[in-house]
Design the sequence.
């Protein structure tokens, strides 16, 4: 590993940089394949290396150049009657999530993050479905949860994934378009708030430089694999990758592997 690469990650070991590279690639693969899930893969692993606050700033910088054009292209296929109420509620609760992130200690945040992701994957993979068109109260509630999770760990797509992937009437194409359109808009809103809070920094931008290409490759591969996958395969791969990422990041294993 070159000295230049190491200089972009002050205080991070070579093993830690490798973890960030792998997490970025896997997160990009899932994001391109499903339309969501980068943060659900990246954040549990990156928080082990950098801590939740620094990882939150880094993930925004990595994803932003990709989220905006993907969201723009998905806009014409998205169902905006569902997306807008979610976005409004999420914007209101985002600052609460950020406040909790900066208040809670690092290990507590790692437990919360990993357990939230594991619970979401368990619910999505359980086969539970709801029928019919979601009403406004449900949409606002899911949006509020999304904003809270976005502020805590940039995993605002997680409640939305449960919301849309669990909808019996939704197919993978609509789910993917809704998620990409939502994430594109929420990226602009969350970036403004995170910058004002001092969470997005020059250090975040420098660390992101070598990760852009890795993320782009994963995103490209995932996008092309989406065309080839069946509905069942689509769900299974997304759930498994997210589950393993959260499982590996649990503080439970720190003593066993010397982390």
Sequence:
């Amino acid at each position: 590993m070159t000295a230049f690469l190491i200089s972009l990650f002050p205080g991070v070991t070579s093993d830690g940089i490798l973890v960030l590279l792998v997490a970025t690639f896997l997160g990009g693969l899932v994001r391109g394949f499903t339309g969501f899930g980068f943060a659900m893969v990246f954040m549990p692993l990156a928080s082990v290396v950098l801590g939740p606050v620094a990882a939150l700033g880094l993930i925004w910088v990595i994803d932003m150049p990709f989220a905006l054009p993907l969201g723009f292209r998905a806009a014409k296929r998205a169902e905006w009657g569902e997306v807008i109420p979610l976005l409004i509620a999420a914007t209101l609760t985002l600052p609460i999530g950020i406040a909790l992130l900066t208040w809670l200690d690092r290990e507590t945040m790692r437990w919360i993050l990993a357990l939230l992701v594991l619970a979401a994957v368990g619910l999505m993979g359980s086969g539970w479905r709801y029928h019919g068109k979601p009403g406004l109260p449900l949409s606002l509630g899911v949006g509020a949860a999304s904003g809270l999770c976005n502020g805590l760990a940039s995993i605002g797509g997680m409640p939305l994934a449960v919301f849309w992937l669990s909808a019996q009437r939704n197919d993978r194409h609509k789910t993917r378009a809704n998620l990409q359109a939502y994430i594109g808009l929420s990226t602009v809103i969350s970036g403004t708030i995170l910058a004002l809070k001092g969470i997005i920094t020059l250090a975040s931008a420098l660390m992101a430089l070598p990760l852009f290409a890795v993320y782009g490759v994963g995103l490209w591969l995932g996008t092309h694999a989406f065309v080839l996958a069946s509905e069942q395969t689509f769900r299974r791969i997304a759930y498994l990758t997210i589950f393993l990422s959260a499982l590996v990041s649990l503080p439970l294993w720190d003593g066993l592997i010397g982390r």
